[in-house]
Specification:
elongated; 193 residues; mainly alpha; CASP-like protein 4C1; 6 helices; 75% helix
Amino acid sequence: MRSPQSLHNGDTPSPLPRIPHFQSTLSVQKLRRFNSLILFFRLAAFCFSLASSIFMLTNSRGSNSPRWYDYDAFRFVFAANAIVAIYSLFEMGVSVWEISRGATFFPEVLQVWFDFGHDQVFAYLLLSADSAGTELARTLKGTDTCTAANAFCLQSDISVALGFAGFLFIGVSSLLSGFRVACFIINGSRFHL
């Protein structure tokens, strides 16, 4: 309690007492659970994109068999999935950092927008690459390429399907990072606590 003497010496009492920032254990657990969910989807996107790029990279059978790098769409599928695998690996590291330390890797405003923007860009990159790969695979099925080298076409189909699964998981990650952006805009924090 302040003495009346201190008020006479020019001090003004504050209207509200200072309350230290309090964060409940429940809200910390919810934030950790949400970040773990994002980590799971990033891990799944990494696994499927890496598998897709490996399937496309190993899709050559011999000297007479067609090669994946002879087709622009299949090169696009390989490159897009490799890029998304590298990005997902980086984001998994950032997610582990955030879960273990309780703070973002970059400043919070940068981290929220970085995640959302890159998730969007790489999701659309995967969608366009796998769509181009699907169209080329359908076109090849109508030619002699798939009758003479059926394993090449089958492995190309598997690679494209794995890429679409990677798109699904990075798309869900994009929705979750969009939720974090919305929370940041509304509340000033990446998650409503």
